[in-house]
Amino acid sequence: MKEPIQSAANEPPELNLTSMIDVIFLLLIFFVCTADFREPEKTLPTNLTLPGAIASETVPQRDRDLGKIVVRLFVAPNRQTTYSVDGKRVASLAEVEAILESLSEIDTNTPVVVAPERDVPLERVLDVYDCSRRVGLGKIKFAASQEALAL
Fold first, then answer.
1. Domain with 76 in it: what CATH number?
2. Domain that holds residue 103
3. Secondary structure of the chain: what % helix, strand, coil (to 5)?
4. Which of 13, 39, 70, 132 is surrounded by the fewest CB atoms within 10 Å?
């Protein structure tokens, strides 16, 4: 009779892990390829409404991207200065300051563009500048038309 080999009984058994590692890598590749890393579109704030679509929610003002704030100054026929902030007419300088203050709560790094008409007194332009600085908006730019630059 043949005797069993003694040396094989004394050594610990070896595990071949190559096939298990292959399976783990295949599962890892499968999950990476099928995962969707994009943010779900419904949770992103947006102001877009398509024709025929029902607007479900409005975007909170804190989530709005401002870009820049444009303050225009006009001279009315009665020689009074009128203002508009981002295209909305405003009656007084106090209202301009209130709007700028509410916008500064969103982002103080938003630039303010002051765009006066040609006949607006410099004092009114500086009033808007002072209002912007008072509410904490530090990036203030002045815009002028080509006519004003030619003078």
1. 3.30.420.270
2. 67-150
3. 40, 15, 45
4. 13
Instruction: Pull the structure tokens for residue 54.
Output: 């029902």
pLDDT of residue 2: 65
Q: Is 94 part of any domain?
A: yes
List pLDDT tens digits, range 38-51. 666 666 555 656 56
The string of pLDDT tens digits covering residues 77-89 is: 888 888 888 888 8
| Secondary structure letter of residue 62 according to DSSP | G
CA quadruple 27, 32, 35, 37: dihedral, nearest 10: 160
- SS3 at position 61: helix
Structure tokens at 26: 């295949």
Using one digit for the tens of pLDDT, what is the confidence trace for 1-31? 566 666 656 777 777 888 899 999 999 999 8
Q: Cβ(59)–Cβ(45) under 8 Å?
A: yes
Helices (H), 14-58: 18-34
What mean pLDDT is reported for the chain? Answer: 76
- Torsion angle, CA of 146/69/64/95, rounded to 10 degrees? -140
CB 116 within 8 A of CB 141: no
